[in-house]
Amino acid sequence: MAYRLKVNGRDHTVDVDGDTPLLWVLRDVLGMTGTKFGCGKALCGACTVHLDGAPTRSCITPIESVGNAAVTTIEDIGHMPAGRAIQKAWLDLEVVQCGYCQSGQIMSAAALLASNPHPSNSDIADAMSGNICRCGTYIRIRAAIEQAAQAFAPARKGG
Amino acid sequence: MELPYIVPDTRPASDAATIDGLSRRTFITATVAAGGGLLLSLAVHGQSVAAERGATEFAPNAFVRIDRHGRVTLVMPQVEMGQGTYTSMPMLIAEELEVDLSQVHLEAAPPDDKLYANPLIGFQITGGSTSVRGFWEPLRRAGAVARTMLVSAAAATLKVDPASCRAEHGIVIHPPSGRKLGYGAVAEKAATLPVPQTVALKDPKDFRLIGTPVKRLDAASKVNGEAVYGIDVKLPGMKIATVAACPVFGGKLKAVDDRKALKVKGVHQVVRLDDAVAVVADHMGAAKKGLAALDIAWDPGANARLSTADLVQQLDTASKQSGVVARKDGDVAKAMAGAAQTLEALYQVPLLAHTTMEPINCTVHVQPGGCEVWVGNQVVSRAQAAAAQVTGLPLDKVRVHNHLLGGGFGRRLEVDYVTQAVRIAKQVTGPVKVVWTREEDVQHDIYRPYYYDRLAAGLDQDGRLIAWSHRVTGPSLLARFLPAAFKNGIDRDAVEAAAGPYDFANLLIDYVRQEPPAGLTVGWWRGVGVTHNAFMVEGFIDEVAHLAKKDPVAFRRTLLDKAPRARVVLDLAAEKADWGQPMPAGSGRGVSVIFGFGSYIAQVAEVAVDQDGQPHIKRVVCAVDCGQMVNPDTVEAQVQSGIIYGITGALYGEITLKDGRVEQSNFDDYQALRIDEAPIIEVYIVQSHEAPGGLGEPGTAAVAPAVVNAIYAATGKRLRKLPIKSADIKPT
């Protein structure tokens, strides 16, 4: 059946089975391939998007469960202050290697920063341990989140 | 993969990139490019594996294009899978061409072994940590020749002496008059000039790009979702397919009932191959749902009862026979007979999957007169050949578009998935993207083989090591992957670094080839032979040091008289890691030192073992001498990356077989290290102008032995088999 969906502020209607994971609607139906497939079982985090700001594994999120929630993907995360700060830190510290997992890493990190501008080491570990990187960029991910937090917090205070 | 038959990794390794015994000359030809401008092709002439097959003609292998607008295009012979080639290769050209990296446009090379052969291996391949080593000189020379011709063309236009001109930022400048001409303005004229036979390359002290931490050219597109990997290809009318191959290796499809699958919304077709079934749909969600709805009967074939224990049993039996001698120095038997103490040990490493983050995929459009393939692959010309073979088309009717790779690690050195996708696409109208599930990836990988090695050492009365033997038992990857390189019964990869970087007066390395049953294919995994042997050698030498009652660092030092660069990194790692300083109870430090891929690496791991026997890797200190660096930031990144990959293997990596099937399936039962488990990693780099070494792999090779040696230091439990199991180290 048809489902209405709001992705990055735009409305879409898709005609798929209700149990179709949001991941495949984004990638294969809407052609938004920035969100990645990694495991299909919420084990690796590559498919992370935001639903009303909450980091969500789109590979196990049936389209019928999305409802009116606003879907934000990597393609639009740079329009959010936290997302922009994370992307900048990622570039400053040269985090990426193959880059395939980084959409999901950035979505998880942006959600962390948006909800917790001063994450501790254990906050970072908790928020990011669901995202696997086989290139092993973890050392730089940690540093980049810390840097983004430093840059982000004053900016946030100033509005 | 290391290919020591071409690139000898023997001491002294000051120039590991030199092709042994071969005269390597670089030929460069210039022609007017289509549409105007200078097309500069570069040829490396040298004997290679291809030459051994009889192809001895000179062939260009990389090229630069400069159009009349000054646009510089570098066609990348090496693929980008995270290791940074799409930054390092342009740096090499741009350094000598005198252009800014912001002026360089990159294109992925199409398949062509004549144009784009890897100079160190002989065909179009990205692997073996060879990109910088292989293209270090040819790409700089290509840039220098192009710049020389552009300067000459500008000087002729300005009617001045070329020696009075210089180039910078893509512009030729004549300082006495202050006149300037952009590269684009003189490109066509440059193309008519004779190609200089010799050009001087810059002295390293004049490098402005090489050796600096240039930002990755591919980073921006990888933080905003724009980067296009093979799995992201979009084509008009494209369908998505997912596949189930027979879960038992070598088995066949017997029957499939697809009635329920065909009723799934969005499913179009079920494709039957002799060993697999694919469901073709509008999207992957429907394809997966359709696949789950199939009722499939398999014919498991000869491997129906195969288990890991069978493999190990076969290896054990084989390892009791002496093998083909790969290296023999002095007289081991005599030295052993006279030894005051001897030690023997059996070391084992398991089958491993690669689990690249981007699941295996390949998009194919087969039409009557041609075939197009969109893929991320490390051996693009083999992908083309595979598609040609399946379709029966000539090579020139098969177009392959290579994409960014979401990880390679050796998995994408194979074209099994290209072959399979083309077989499926032959039955589909229009383009089809075949995407494997993670389960399919884990259960149908081309696995790092199980190795089963027997080592022995002898000590004299003073605890000096006087004899070392290492028998490697395992399959030959080269015999399948590069048959021409498998000579005299010796797989040089399997025995690579089997004596470490050490100088042993009496040394014997022999190789027993033992292949797994047909249907189970094994292949390259990050660090290849060096990774396998580093675990055996660095673990065993640690045992020997303790038997000799010597400090493990000091003991290794005594064996490195002829490898001063290895000694330097060993000392540096030990110093930075506070080697010898006290550790809390239950914690320990372990060391390793290796030479591989032209680079020297030493690591010290700090590990704490808890009450449950769970090892916690707290810190890894790594010292690196990789010769001349192209990009120090990438060097550090690759070392960090290699260490994390190696720790994943050491802690979690184990593929096991039962009833001919792989028992693992996804990241829950085939785990990868996560950020909360990642240690502090410190990387210290020795500044050097020695020939560049490879860096994609040695970080992986060195870490597992450092960790098991640290566990020994912490617990007194010696681990000779990976992965590490807490039951084996739990305090009793």
Describe the structure.
The complex is a heterodimer of chains A (159) and B (732). Chain A is of the alpha+beta class and 159 residues long. Chain A folds into two domains: 2-72, Beta-grasp domain (Ubiquitin-like (UB roll)), CATH 3.10.20.30; 77-157, DNA polymerase, domain 1 (Orthogonal Bundle), CATH 1.10.150. Chain A is built from five helices and five strands. In chain A, helix 2 (81-92) crosses helix 3, helix 2 (81-92) crosses helix 5 (138-157) and helix 3 crosses helix 4. The longest helix of chain A has 20 residues, at 138-157. Chain A starts with a strand and ends with a helix. The mean pLDDT of chain A is 96. Chain B is of the alpha+beta class. Chain B folds into three domains: 25-219, Aldehyde oxidase/xanthine dehydrogenase, molybdopterin binding domain (Aldehyde Oxidoreductase, domain 4, 2-Layer Sandwich), CATH 3.30.365.10; 230-301 and 360-435, 2-Layer Sandwich (Aldehyde Oxidoreductase, domain 4), CATH 3.30.365; 309-351 and 447-729, Aldehyde oxidase/xanthine dehydrogenase, molybdopterin binding domain (Aldehyde Oxidoreductase, domain 4), CATH 3.30.365.10. Chain B is 29% helix and 24% strand. Chain B has 20 helices and 28 strands. In chain B, strands 11-12-9-19-16-17-18 form a seven-stranded mixed beta sheet, sandwiched between helices. A five-stranded mixed beta sheet of chain B has the order 1-2-3-4-5. In chain B, strands 14-22-21-20-15 form a five-stranded mixed beta sheet, with helices on both faces. In chain B, helix 11 packs parallel to helix 12. Chain B is globular, with a radius of gyration of 27 Å. The two termini of chain B are 41 Å apart. In chain B, 60% of the residues are buried. Mean pLDDT of chain B is 91; it is low at 1-36 and 38-62. At the A-B interface, helix 1, helix 2, helix 3, helix 4 and helix 5 of A face helix 6, helix 8 and helix 18 of B.
